[in-house]
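Running co-folding for nicotinamide-adenine-dinucleotide.
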Amino acid sequence: MTTRRILITGGAGFLGSHLCERLVDAGHDVICLDNFFTSQKTNVAHLLSRPNFELIRHDVTREIWLEVDQIYNMACPASPIHYQYNPIKTTKVSVLGAINVLGMAKRCNARVLQASTSEVYGDPDIHPQPESYHGNVSCIGPRACYDEGKRVAETLFFDYHRQNGVDIRVVRIFNTYGPRMHPFDGRVVTNFIVQAIQGQDITIYGDGSQTRSFCYVDDLVNGIIAMMDNEQGFIGPVNLGNPGEFTIKQLAEMVIAMTGSTSRITYLPLPKDDPTQRRPDNTLAKEKLGWAPAIKLEEGLAKTIAYFKSIDLSEYRKPTDFDYATSNRER
Ligand code: NAD
Ligand code: UDP
């Protein structure tokens, strides 16, 4: 195996920390860069004593001079309550962050992978979503800072590739869950499990008929690494997600049943621009990467529930005070 120098921006986050672990275990020299906005050092504390792991506190909107062979650009708040807290900063993270990692890749002749998102499809009117679909995104709504930021980042990746020959990879990640999600990130899997464990009401936004497709983190990490390491010249964009599609109400019922909780379901208003349906068309990932997810929702939820039961919630700082219940912004 070739030992590579690998930079992971947002490496202390949920997905980033799993990537760090996998790449450190594979023997690579891993640099984890993070400003800890939506994560804590505890996510990578178990790697700090490893000689091939290095942690840098840095904001990806500022340039940094490093010598690397590969870059996974994961830095960006991903939960709606996190990215809507300071939406101007969110757009800067996607755009300036992309420019900085692309500049570094150009200078070092490194390969660079962008963690894009199913949000580039917005509230889709084609179902399931193939990569060829151009999306239905509001450029002025409360989710636009994230959706449009990620769309511009993809544009920058493809322009650096065409104009400067930078070796790029773009993955569009669909809702992914698992251990090390921040317990107060407000995302649906986290909220429902934490509420169920604590016997609080399960908060369904809207009537719960909106759908999402949930991918377990181990499957996703396999797909991301397969994309980075593919040598067939396939640069994407490629969808990575689990095609199993569930309504939010079904998810709530599964979590209540699996935790044996006495929690009841309560219904709150649906946030503005909340997509009504989402499911990846995985044909391209299968064809080009031989990748398909293997872990069913029940199996992944069981592991995630066990994780949230094992942690002490008092050790986690809420990244922001912003949430839908207390915000006076338009929902
Ligand atoms: P996360 O919030 O756990 O991780 C993001 C990490 O980026 C955090 O550690 C955060 O502190 C860091 N970060 C934020 N702003 C930064 C900045 N300015 N400089 C440096 N670091 C910064 O979220 P995640 O779920 O692990 O998402 C990781 C990436 O994958 C994001 O780019 C996200 O958009 C993308 N993604 C995730 C999902 C998902 O379902 N988990 C879906 C689609 C796309
Ligand atoms: N959701 C919900 N209750 C919650 C959190 C989220 O009903 O406590 C809904 C949300 O409105 C959306 C879906 O669950 O329809 C997924 O939300 P999440 O924030 O996890 O991610 P999104 O896919 O919307 O970016």
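Result summary
The longest helix spans residues 87-108.
The mean pLDDT is 96.
Job closed.
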